[in-house]
Amino acid sequence: MRKILLQIFIFSVLFIVTFTINRVLMQNSFIPTGLISDKNGIFLMYLLGVFHDIRFLSAAFLPFLLCGFLSLIFSNIKINNKLVIYSKNFYFIFSSIYIIVISCLCIGFSYAKYYYYEIYKTKFDIF
């Protein structure tokens, strides 16, 4: 279980760093230099951004954590050796595919958000 939590922590830190770099690039591209003089506002922007990233990542990695718990439960049940091997392989395959999908979505939306704002000068609006 320690390995699962370490994976979640490492990928969360990587995603938070990626999103922060995206914010820095957007700040340098779109915010006028006159507004950057307000250091408290800029710090608050980054702080709230990290809080929103953590909120998103906690929801994104919940199935990953649930799969790890189920793998841990099924690995302790000794019905037959195939069940133990299957649960470990299932966790490895599921976690690999899930991380790839989440990574592609996060990187894709980071690019889309940047270029959408560059073209339309507004953020994504769902409604």
Rounded Rg: 19 Å
Q: What is the SS-derived class?
A: mainly alpha
Total strand segments: 0
For the largest beta-sheet, the strand count, sense and barrel status come to: none
Cα distance spanning the termini: 40 Å
Give the tally of structural domains: 1
> Count of DSSP helices?
4
- Report strand %: under 5%
Q: Can you tell me the overall shape?
A: elongated
How confident is the prediction overall: mean pLDDT?
82
Percent helix among the residues?
Answer: over 70%
Order of helices and strands: HHHH
**Which stretches are low in confidence, meaning pLDDT under 50 for 5 or more residues running?**
none
Report on this model:
- There is one protein chain.
- The protein is an all-alpha fold and 127 residues long.
- The protein has helices at 2-30, 39-60, 62-76, 81-120.
Short summary:
The chain is mainly alpha-helical. It has helices at 2-30, 39-60, 62-76, 81-120.
List its salient traits:
127 residues, mainly alpha, elongated
Describe the secondary structure blueprint for this structure.
Layout: H1 2-30, H2 39-60, H3 62-76, H4 81-120
